[in-house]
Amino acid sequence: MRLKAGRPDLAAYSARFDVPPASPDSPLSVSWAGVTTLLVDDGESAVMTDGFFSRPGLLTVAARTLTSSRARVEDGLARLGVRRLAAVAPVHTHYDHALDSALVARLTGARLIGGSSAAQIGLGHGLAHIDVVTAGAPVDAGAYELTLIEGSHCPPDRFPGPITAPVVPPARASAYRCGEAWSIHLRHRPTDRRLLIVGSAGFVPGALAGLRADVAYLGVGQLGLQPSTYITEYWAQTVRAVGARRVVLTHWDDFFRPLDRPLRALPFAADDLDASMAVLTRLAEHDGVALHLPTLWRRADPWS
After folding, report:
1. Which one, 27, 202, 217, 273, has least CB within 10 Å?
2. Are the C-beta atoms of residues 167 and 178 closer than 8 Å to each other?
3. What CA–CA distance (Å, rounded) separates 274 from 14?
């Protein structure tokens, strides 16, 4: 924990909330719903990462057991226009990613895709459609090919290790251990558009070698607590590794705050978005990469 008071002012980055919007003719769109919940949709087929909408408050997380808020989940899906999903894939199984994944899968008819820890969350909800993937092996889901590449959680990981038994809600936040921390490479087969999604600001050197993606949605949670050398290597092992020309930053928002209130950055005690932005802006300018922050609920076309 850090002693610095307050939190970054998002108004300082107002010009960065400029991901190109999707048009009626866009063949593929990406919508962001906080943390690393992303909806990728071509109008006929859609997949989602995480599906975290409940966002319980800090005191609840610290002192009580957690369960999904069906009302908040249904509201989030409605705002995104989601009725059916081919798959839901949590980027790892901490509660701020996977608390609602199984409920989203049940409500949308999706397959829950992930590692053995995600499967334990699905089993705790009685899900029937659970796919435990092999790291690096493509999996088909609707119009998409998903490849989950094992990565690493950004330090510190407060609940490390795998989930080894079904998580039956209500359960403590500590039951949602990290499990496998994935980077997800998504290819939309009809257009061959490719997207890299990195949920946690960690990396395994060389893990993404040989993959290509024009766009990267890059998680920056806790990244601002790391030295600049770490941030530079994170950029090299993700953005440069896949040759991305546009980067959209996620996991900077205060996820203890519900989505019906204005977003704000995580406090300095938990992260430092200003420190992350200072280094990432410099790296993006050096590499000629467009750097953005996403707008809640908005359909974007980051390939345009």
Report:
1. 27
2. no
3. 13
Tokens of 54: 């409940």
Phi-psi region of 210 (alpha: psi -120 to 50; beta: other; left: phi over 0): left
Contact 169, 125 (CB under 8 A): yes
240: buried, middle or exposed (CB in 10 Å: 19+, 13-18, 0-12)?
Answer: middle
- Residue whose C-alpha is closest to residue 81's, from 100, 101, 108, 111: 108
Average pLDDT over residues 169-173: 98
Share of the chain above pLDDT 90, in %: 98
Rounded to whole angstroms, the Cα distance separating 161 from 163 reads 7
d(CA 179, CA 204): 15
> What mean pLDDT is reported for the chain?
97
Which tokens is 148 given? Answer: 């989950």
**Which of 239, 194, 241 is CA-nearest to residue 30?**
194
pTM of the shown model: 0.97
Distance CA 71, CA 163 (A): 27
**Cα 224 from Cα 237, distance rounded (Å):** 17
Instruction: Round to whole Å and give the CA distance between 141 and 47.
Output: 8
Q: What is the C-alpha end-to-end distance of the chain, expressed in Å?
A: 40
Tokens linked to 87: 């798959």
